[in-house]
Design brief:
Length: 149
């Protein structure tokens, strides 16, 4: 559906203004659909992001700083997110022996199992892109990369 129809706005200051609004709107739309899936597992998108980073690091631990650097949402409070995941037994957090100020985080077996279940649902999530082909997806990806310079 066209942006103008979705937000009931016919005019924009420019195509660049419309593009910015469209990206923000589409982000919210994608986030809504992702949250619907993650709610089944009592996870936020930010917690899911951390689990995926940790799975990529597995079996090696990651520091909180590494997680913060790799997070999609740079405004997240990574330490707080890790603590919530620890309470759910999805990650373990240990102080580094060499530097007590540094914490190391590793995904648990339970965390890996949750991600396995989410992987199946992730395939269904990608079906929201049914209206575009892989070539279109590549063009959009290239354009978004170009916007960020």
């Amino acid at each position: 559906m066209k942006l103008e129809d979705e937000i009931k706005q016919e005019k924009f200051k420019s195509e660049f203004h419309k593009l910015a609004v469209n990206i923000i709107y589409t982000h919210s739309w994608l986030n809504y659909h992702q949250v619907q899936i993650l709610n089944r597992f009592n996870l936020t998108p930010q917690q899911y992001n951390i689990l995926r980073i940790l799975r990529g690091q597995h079996p090696n631990p990651a520091t909180v700083n590494l997680l913060k650097e790799r997070m999609l949402d740079k405004m997240s409070d990574t330490s707080r997110l890790v603590e919530r995941l620890r309470i759910k037994d999805l990650v373990e957090r240990k102080n580094c022996k060499e530097d007590r100020r540094r914490a190391e985080v590793i995904i648990t077996e339970k965390g890996l199992k949750v991600l396995q279940e989410l992987d199946i649902l992730e395939d269904k999530f990608q079906s929201i892109f049914i209206n575009i082909g892989e070539d279109d997806a590549k063009v959009v990806n290239d354009l978004l990369d170009k916007i960020r310079g």
